[in-house]
Specification:
The structure holds two protein chains of two kinds. By secondary structure, chain A is α+β, with helices and mostly antiparallel strands. Chain A folds into two domains: about 80 residues, no CATH class; about 280 residues, no CATH class. Chain B is α/β, with parallel strands linked by helices. The longest helix of chain B is centred in the last third of the chain and has 17 residues. Chain B has an eight-stranded parallel β-sheet with strand order 7-6-5-4-3-2-1-8. Chain B has a single domain, classed as Aldolase class I (TIM Barrel, Alpha-Beta Barrel). Chain B is globular. Chain B has nine helices and eight strands. Classes of the chains: A alpha+beta, B alpha/beta. At the A-B interface, helix 1, helix 4, strand 5, helix 11 and strand 13 of A face helix 7, helix 8 and helix 9 of B.
């Protein structure tokens, strides 16, 4: 990315957009003194411009006293005293670190300047409700230059541990699609890099015939600031029937203490299987060497469900985990009309039974049909 | 980004009382109630009302440019100003189509005073109704009998042709459970065109008076009030509530305010609220949201467990 120094700008409104032109004063020898050479012309939707103003305000906050004093020099003494006093800059609440890191990852992926998919999720467990989670998906073919370096550079910005980075680097060649995951809650901030294989059709057929799984994703997950550091394997069982999925849920994911969760998972499966053969869903199991995680991930995109189609099940999840009804409703009402993505669940590495629900997948900056079809 | 599952609200397109059509002038800074949620409490004694010169300048300017359709006379309790009817008359004579007052409505319990104002050209009345019953309202205003006078004032206005009333109920810990009941209590008013629900902001960085209610607690009552008011044909405006949390009622959120002409000393105080804070602020596509404010976050945290950002248009 080219860096341009500017010491002049002009703002105008054109067809509902805010247009900011940047340039340098004094560089235009031919045009004479006072002329500005325009180097960049940026067109911003009004909403983006508003957010730019807010960010600029934040950035200038640390210089507020000096700026007020400088501006006050032009005022009569009485007005200058008022203008220069502190208190005109709002005191902000202490920043939420998870919010800042979540924004950073979104920005870094946005700066790759390639189409990507954005899908939010929430987790519900006995630990509570957590809605600051999302997944970003990038097609390797869209990345110019060295995809490995570009994606790992993002991981570096988010403090990926050295050993995990090295492992991801070694396995990068398998990558067809990459996904960045983010989970921010008050106790920990987890970032994830998923490397997804393109499974050849004959490999999937063989696996199906032998009742064996194939590796679909490797996920490298780390807690910002130290702590959790784990590699997860996502194993795809191709073209299982609904009965086979139910069987695996019962025998490999859920045990005696989690029968209520098993019933909920089976109910979601039944909802999807009522819309299309379960073989067209995608059933994965997740394992993490070295800990007791037993979980599944059921891809429901093809069933074309909306979150609200799962309402009765979701309310039972709420009750099962003791989420406050008002809290849950506040989240549910925001997302009920979104498309249903996938449901993950089981027993997490911390021993807690959980569900993750992914919803509302959308393409950024524009809808990318090729990416969608490749899932 | 296209997000067909979350279309922009349609109801927002037809606003009867568009903020851009009004200019708001602070003409009085005294009040005879002591509402606990008063946003200018503590500043009333030193904020200066606009002068008659300023008032006349605005009238002259609007007569020439026709920038605004309506003039709102506000400050604290403008009915305490003896020449209020004269001001209204001057505004109408200068060409303003509407003159509105913001009031607690107590003086409007006097029918003759109502007539005086209506005859002078005050055709819109924005009345503060803090709760659904006398006990709660009077506790909030700290003046016994104030609820009965406010209700009588609204009922008096109901008898005048050409008059429009609007109400505002400030949402606080004391009032939020009564929001649907406020809608019910005012259900008999024929001229009540719009009900506002302004979520309390403390004008400082902390909620010293413990009035801020949790958005999650307020939400079901607020949405019930919105739907109840709309079922009665009223327009609804909500201020200072996270847009995402309002779900399908998000079109009720309207944080725009008319052009406010006020003592410049007000703004440093207002800035202390510190609006537009949210964990999703830098990438949320919400257009009208004020986010959370400093005192709110300090009291209830960031609500990252439930807030969901809107997609952007990128």
């Amino acid at each position: 990315m080219k860096e341009t120094a500017a010491n002049a700008f002009k703002v105008s409104l054109e067809a509902g957009d805010v247009v900011v032109e940047f340039g340098r004063m004094g560089d235009a020898a031919a045009a004479g003194p006072g002329a500005v050479t325009v180097s960049d012309r940026i067109v911003l939707p009004v909403d983006t411009a508003r957010r730019l103003v807010l960010s600029l305000g934040d950035s200038l906050g640390k210089h507020a006293a000096a700026l007020r004093a400088a501006e006050a020099k032009a005022l009569p003494p009485g007005e200058a005293a008022v203008a220069a006093r502190p208190g005109q800059v709002a005191v902000r609440a202490p920043a939420d670190e998870a919010g800042e890191k979540g924004a950073l990852l979104l920005r870094l992926v946005g700066e790759l300047d390639v189409p990507h998919q954005y899908e939010r999720s929430f987790r519900i467990s006995s630990a509570g409700l957590m809605a600051n989670r999302y997944l970003l998906t990038i097609d390797r073919r869209d990345l110019l230059g060295d995809p490995r370096e570009r994606l790992l550079a993002i991981c570096d910005r988010l403090g990926m541990p050295v050993a995990l980075r090295s492992a991801a680097e070694q396995r990068f060649e398998m990558t067809s699609c990459a996904h960045f995951g983010f989970e921010g809650d008050p106790g920990s901030i987890i970032c994830k890099l998923y490397l997804e294989r393109k499974v050849p059709d004959d490999e999937a057929r063989r696996a199906r015939a032998q009742g064996e799984p194939v590796l679909l994703h490797l996920a490298f997950k780390w807690q910002i600031g130290g702590g959790t550091e784990v590699t997860s394997e996502y194993l795809w069982y191709p073209q299982l029937t609904a009965a086979q999925i139910e069987g695996r849920l019962a025998s490999h994911v859920y045990g005696e203490p989690t029968q209520a969760s098993l019933a909920l998972a089976k109910e979601v499966l039944a909802l999807a299987a009522a819309r299309l053969p379960a073989e067209q869903l995608q059933y994965l199991e997740v394992q993490e060497p070295g800990n007791g995680r037993r979980s599944f991930d059921l891809n429901l995109y093809n069933a074309r469900l909306q979150v609200k189609d799962l309402q009765p099940v979701l309310y039972r999840m709420r009750d099962l985990y003791g989420a406050r009804p008002g809290q849950f409703q506040a989240l549910y009402d925001q997302i009920k009309a979104k498309t249903m993505g996938h449901l993950a669940g089981g027993v997490h590495r911390n021993g807690k039974d959980f569900f993750n629900l992914y919803y509302g997948v959308a393409g950024l900056p524009h809808f990318n049909e090729r990416l969608r079809q490749s899932r | 980004m296209l997000d067909v599952s979350n279309p922009p609200p349609a109801a927002a397109t037809a606003k009867r009382f568009a903020a851009a059509d009004y200019v708001e002038l602070t003409v009085h800074f005294k009040c005879n109630l002591k509402c606990e949620h008063c946003m200018i409490e503590g500043t009333m004694d030193w904020l200066k009302p606009e002068s008659m010169d300023q008032f006349e300048t605005i009238l002259a300017r609007n007569a020439q440019l026709r920038t605004w359709k309506g003039l709102i006379l506000t400050g604290s309790e403008v009915t305490l100003r003896r020449d209020l009817a004269d001001l209204a008359r001057m505004a109408r004579e200068s060409g303003f189509e509407h003159v509105r007052i913001q009031t607690h409505g107590g003086r409007l319990a006097d029918e003759a005073y109502c007539r005086e104002l209506v005859d002078a050209g005050v055709d819109e009345y924005f009345v503060s109704v803090t709760a659904a019953d006398a006990a709660t309202h009077d506790a909030i205003t700290a003046v016994p009998g104030s609820f009965e006078r406010t209700i009588r004032g609204l009922e008096n206005l109901d008898a005048f042709e050409g008059v429009t009333t609007l109400t505002n109920t400030v949402i606080t810990r004391r009032s939020f459970r009564q929001l649907p009941a406020v809608v019910e209590r005012l259900g008999h008013l024929r001229r009540l065109a719009q009900m506002d629900f302004w979520n309390y902001w403390p004008m400082r960085e902390t909620d010293d008076k413990d009035l801020i209610a949790s958005h999650l607690e307020v939400l079901p009552y607020l949405r019930a009030a919105i739907s109840g008011a709309r079922a009665r044909g009223r327009a609804v405006e909500v201020k200072n509530f996270p847009e995402c949390l309002l779900g399908e009622d998000r079109d009720a959120l309207e944080n725009d305010q008319p052009k406010l002409v006020i003592d410049p000393e007000f703004w440093p105080e207002f800035m202390r609220n510190g609006f537009h804070q949210c964990v999703h602020r830098s990438y949320c596509g919400a257009r009208r949201c004020l986010g959370l404010n400093t005192a709110y976050v300090r009291k209830y945290g960031w609500h990252a467990d439930v807030l969901v950002p809107f997609p952007t248009e990128g």
